[in-house]
Design a protein that fits this description.
- The complex is a heterodimer of chains A (169) and B (285).
- By secondary structure, chain A is α+β, with helices and mostly antiparallel strands.
- Helices cover 35% and strands 15% of the residues of chain A.
- Chain A has helices spanning 23-30, 87-94, 104-117, 123-129, 140-161, and strands spanning 2-8, 11-17, 49-52, 55-58, 71-73.
- Chain A has a five-stranded mixed β-sheet, covered by helices on one side.
- The two termini of chain A are 29 Å apart.
- Chain B is of the alpha+beta class and 285 residues long.
- Chain B has three domains: 7-53, Uridine Diphospho-n-acetylenolpyruvylglucosamine Reductase, domain 2, CATH 3.30.43.10; 58-173, Uridine Diphospho-n-acetylenolpyruvylglucosamine Reductase, domain 3, CATH 3.30.465; 179-283, Enolase-like, domain 1 (2-Layer Sandwich).
- Helices cover 32% and strands 29% of the residues of chain B.
- Chain B has helices at 14-24, 37-42, 78-82, 85-90, 92-98, 104-109, 112-118, 125-131, 227-233, 240-247, 264-283, and strands spanning 7-9, 28-31, 50-53, 63-66, 69-73, 135-140, 143-148, 153-155, 158-159, 166-173, 179-188, 191-205, 208-217, 224-225.
- In chain B, the strands form four sheets. Chain B has a five-stranded antiparallel β-sheet with strand order 4-5-10-6-7. In chain B, strands 11-12-13-14 form a four-stranded antiparallel β-sheet.
- Chain B is globular and about 60 Å long.
- The chains are: A alpha+beta (169), B alpha+beta (285).
- The A-B interface holds A 2, 18-20, 22, 25, 41-44, 46, 49, 52, 55-58, 60-63, 65-66, 110, 113-114, 129, 131-134 and B 1-8, 10, 31, 34-35, 38-39, 41-43, 51, 53, 55, 79, 102-106, 108-109, 190-192.
- The structure holds flavin-adenine dinucleotide and FE2/S2 (inorganic) cluster (FES) (2 copies).
- Residues 38-40, 43-48, 58, 60 of chain A line the site of one FE2/S2 (inorganic) cluster.
């Protein structure tokens, strides 16, 4: 057993884990964060995407012990405490950017990561920026539209408040 | 799937890492970004007893200038390579190829040193190291040593690293004035691995090609240099016709794999087309 000490969605946790425990299983099975899902065995689908110190990673391809002393944001940590959706979540809702919803947590976090680096991506940059995430329902058109909407919403609100759409914690 | 059990160590410095790795014997493995190793462990294609995580070794990260070369720490991530002004300026071929590696998630964790040590013939960065005549610095129980890229890639997933050795840094000579480069990659959508990739570096002078280097991805069990094409191009006129004719020699000495992504004859054809495109783009023709 190895000790892991990590902050997830603003709460710090200390646990003894087997070194082979994947971060995604730690999140789901130890912390009950079942919003982060597993879609493949080959590190391809991106459904398990979380933010590690603000940058997107596939939590099925990271060991829990590797993230000690780091900060994780899952889909469950994006909305405000009063339930107000994060602008990217709201944009997915408004643009009907989900069908079955399985890829959605990963898509939303991949979009947050992209927008934190590029607040005004072109359509091509969005498509390339989320290339690590597969949608089995193939609902890419609306996903791209949602990311465009979140980007312009983010630029509008950062112009007024100085805040950005990306999560950079 | 869940990987088989292993022990885990996260040494705080290079000396400790070498010691822990040596003590672990042949069942110990280095963990860098985990973007090749963890998929392999999840599919239970490998059963190491000990993983030695290099993630705590700040000394293996970062990019610096050193005279006529840039030196990249083995644990520098693909994302850090992409954001480096030094790389953009002195090794733009590396930046161009790194941008095609995997996706944002993979590039946030995967490392330059991990890619070279993994030595997948479909990997893009081994080809770049070979084309740019990189020098690979390693250290292990026998002390530090330097391995030229041309002697580093021995076979499929096999390098010249000895048991217990850690790749520490990659030294890439700056390409001098007159050189320009291009990486041409042909891949499947949403699966970034190269079916075939071709790296070209060309030095032009007075309307001719003074020197050329051509590196190949996924045309054998290791990255390869197309030396016949290089010889034909060196000193030739910088024209589309000469480049097209030289590109036809690219399959000489290669052993393209047959797999689900393509048959060998398809790859042989691709290699010729991509070589022509890469050299033309590098030469600005
Ligand atoms: C979905 C996906 C798509 C990808 N697409 C591409 C692509 O298009 N092109 C491409 O080139 N690559 C691609 N990759 C692979 C990626 O580039 C990996 O980052 C890289 O191959 C391995 O680097 P790593 O740091 O993750 O190494 P790890 O996975 O940690 O290690 C890989 C191997 O190298 C050894 N090793 C690592 N570092 C050292 C060291 N410093 N000294 C000695 N041994 C060491 C390990 O023991 C292990 O055997 C992809 C990966 C994924 C998951
Ligand atoms: S579950 Fe992690 S990439 Fe598919
Ligand atoms: S909405 Fe079903 S997988 Fe994307």
């Amino acid at each position: 057993m190895t000790r892991v000490s990590v902050t997830v969605d603003g709460v710090s946790y200390q646990d003894e884990v087997e070194p082979r425990l994947l971060l995604v299983h730690y999140l789901r099975e130890r912390l009950g964060k079942v919003g982060t899902v597993v879609g493949c065995d080959t590190s391809n689908c991106g459904a398990c995407t979380v933010l590690l110190d603000g940058r997107s990673v596939k939590s099925c391809s990271v060991l829990a012990v590797q993230v000690t002393d780091r900060t994780i944001t899952t889909i469950e940590g994006l909305a405000a405490e009063d339930g107000t959706l994060h602008p990217v979540q709201q944009a997915f809702h408004d643009n009907h950017a989900l069908q079955c919803g399985f890829c959605t947590p990963g898509m939303v976090l991949a979009a947050c990561d992209l927008l934190s680096e590029n607040a005004d991506p072109s359509e091509d940059e969005i498509r390339e920026g989320i290339e690590g995430n597969l949608c089995r329902c193939t609902g890419y058109q609306n996903i791209v539209r949602a990311v465009q909407a979140a980007a312009s919403e983010g630029r509008a609100s950062s112009a007024s408040t100085g805040a950005t759409t990306g999560v950079t914690s | 799937m869940i990987p088989a059990s292993f022990e885990y160590e996260r040494p705080a410095n290079l000396d400790a890492a070498v010691r822990v790795l040596q003590d672990g014997g042949e069942d110990a493995k280095v963990l860098a970004g985990g973007q090749s190793l963890l998929p392999v462990l999840r599919l239970r294609l490998s059963y190491p007893e000990l993983l030695v995580d290099l993630g705590g070794l700040a000394e293996l990260r970062g990019i610096r200038e050193d005279g006529d070369a840039i030196v990249i720490g083995s644990m520098t991530t693909h994302d850090e390579v992409l954001k480096s002004e030094l790389v953009r300026q002195h090794a733009p071929l590396l930046a161009q190829a790194t941008a095609t590696v995997g996706d944002r998630q993979v590039r946030h964790l995967g490392t330059f040193g991990g890619s070279l040590s993994h030595a997948d013939p479909a990997g893009d960065l081994p080809t770049i190291a070979l084309t740019l005549d990189a020098q690979l610095h390693a250290t292990g129980p026998g002390g530090p040593r330097v391995i030229p890229a041309s002697e580093f890639f021995l076979d499929y997933l096999t390098t010249a690293l000895r048991p217990g050795e850690i790749l520490t840094a990659i030294r890439i000579p700056k390409l001098g004035a007159g050189w320009s480069t291009h990486y041409e990659k042909f891949d499947r959508v949403a699966q970034a691995w190269s079916i075939v990739g071709v790296a070209a570096a060309v030095r032009r002078s007075n309307g001719s090609i003074a020197e050329a280097r051509v590196g190949l991805t996924n045309m054998g069990t290791t990255p390869l240099r197309a030396s016949l094409v290089e010889d034909e191009l060196s000193g030739a006129a910088a024209s589309a016709a000469t480049v097209a004719s030289a590109s036809r020699s690219v399959t000489e000495g290669t052993h393209a794999p047959n797999d689900l992504a393509g048959h060998a004859d398809y790859r042989n054809h691709l290699a010729q087309v991509l070589t022509r495109r890469a050299v033309l783009a590098a030469a600005g023709i």
